[in-house]
Amino acid sequence: QVQLVESGGGLVQPGGSLRLSCAVSGITTRNYAVSWYRQAPGKERDLVASISIIGGNTDYADSVKGRFTISRDNAKNTVYLQMNSLKPEDTAVYYCRALAPWGTTYWGQGTQVTVSS
After folding, report:
1. What is the pLDDT along the chain (117 residues), one digit of tens a residue?
2. How far apart are CA 94 and CA 37, in angstroms?
3. How far apart are CA 33 and CA 116, in angstroms?
């Protein structure tokens, strides 16, 4: 059974940092491109950051460039999202997604991030 479990969310003040983790079981992450998405209340789910299968290529939404960093540890089957200089508009549920070259997709259940003073 494939599972993606996000963790590391919580309440943080503006300007603070959080590190999200996406622990994957049932598949080998080195065979999948992994992305982080987020969904704020009443809004669509948007792509935040992606990392390629090899791990050398990353891509970010303009709104998080220079503040967020995506990385992967294939030995631990885990992908991370380091979030710095957090803003209230970063408040959302954050999801990780694993995408295989053949199209199979898996999603986690999400972790809440709230940025508020």
Report:
1. 899 999 999 999 999 999 999 999 888 877 889 999 999 999 999 999 999 877 679 999 999 999 999 998 888 999 999 999 999 999 999 999 999 888 999 999 999 999 999
2. 6
3. 31
What Cα–Cα distance (Å) separates residue 92 from each residue in 13, 32, 54? 14, 24, 28
DSSP one-letter string for 21-58: EEEEESS-GGGSEEEEEEE-TTS-EEEEEEE-SSSS-E
d(CA 116, CA 109): 23
Spatial distance between the Cα atoms of 55 and 91, rounded to a whole number of angstroms? 27
Residue 12 CA to residue 38 CA, distance in Å, equals 16
- Given the DSSP bridges, would you call strands 111-115 and 10-12 parallel, antiparallel or unpaired? parallel
